[in-house]
Amino acid sequence: MNVGFAGKFQSFFRPRDIFLHDGISLRRLKIGSKVQMAAVFAAFVLLAWSTFATIGTIAAMNSDVARMQAQLASMERDVATMREQTRTHAALLERRQAFLASILTGDANPEQVAAMLPAQAAARSPATEPYARVDAMQAQLAERARGLATARYNRTAQQLRGIGLDPAEVVSAYTGMGGPEEPVAEPGNADPRFRELFASWRRMEQLEQAVIAIPSARPIERSVNFTSGYGVRSDPFNRGARMHGGIDLAGPLGTPIYATADGIVGRSEWNNGGYGNLVEVNHGQGIQTRYGHMSRRLVEAGTRVRRGQLIGLMGSTGRSTGSHLHYEVRIDGRAVNPVPFMQSSTTLVALQRRVGGQGLAPVAIGGPNGGSAAPAAQR
Known about the structure:
It is a single chain. By secondary structure, the protein is α+β, with helices and mostly antiparallel strands. The chain has 2 domains: 35-211, no CATH class; 225-356, Glucose Permease (Domain IIA) (Distorted Sandwich), CATH 2.70.70.10. It has helices at residues 2-12, 33-105, 110-115, 132-162, 167-176, 192-211, 339-356; strands spanning 16-21, 26-31, 225-228, 231-234, 241-244, 247-250, 256-258, 263-271, 276-284, 287-294, 296-297, 304-305, 310-313, 324-331, 334-335. Strands 3, 6, 8, 9, 10, 12, 14 and 15 form an 8-stranded antiparallel sheet that branches. It has a 3-stranded antiparallel sheet with strand order 7-13-11, with no helix packed on it. Strands 1-2 form a two-stranded antiparallel sheet. It is rod-shaped and about 170 Å long.
């Protein structure tokens, strides 16, 4: 078998004669077996090398393509991350803007404002760098708004102290009306700067809302005579010293009488204790106003009244020497000097107008009535 294969191999590479004719002469070339085998071997080596080089080149190209695809995928991920960071930060800026607008305009209630508290921003990145200026402007606006809220709270608190009221007690009474105060839920990841602004605004808002219940409007808009003040005086009926728990404002019979603050009518009745026709309004926080000696009562018990609402007409019913209004303000049933209220009325009215958005008549008289002395003759 080997002999046969060797024979075939030798016969394939047997010596060959090649004749070359150029048209003039004929030449003969003899190619031996070894030369033929060497040529075939060289061709085989060249083919093998070419095949190996081609395979290597293709492998290298495939590797480069794979590497480029990986780089492209990484770049796409980076772009997607930057796009998401940009979108998230833009949404955060919009949320901050809406929160600041609600704080500054007062269009939302505390629960809504708390729900709008913006979250703390993520660490700054190249994608959010273009928003740095807006970030700084919003932070500056939040700080200014917090300063304004604190200043307004301090001014209001100072005015309340000037008329003998403790701001903390006023707020406590206001928030306690109608049951226990429900805490306002805040997001746990809220930005500390905006959380401080909300706390300052909430503190101011509670105090200013509480101030609405303080009687400061004028019970009579017409020009009237101030005939008797608060305190011990000589009783016009028996000339003895008696405690007068309110102020007397004299005017024509039928002069309109108005509520001096929002509230609910607690009593609208004939009173045998000297008031005659009496209307008593409860304003919350233990504050009441009384309007005595009316010729006619125009509201019923249980009715909700607004500041400046007509509630009766001036008269001279009960223990009275002439047509006038006996006006009292009481805190927890205790009469207080109304003069400090009168002195602070301009500030209180301005504050209440700002909070309530209502046009108010000029204020001249206000103040709780103390019940320390014997029942006073009301005139």
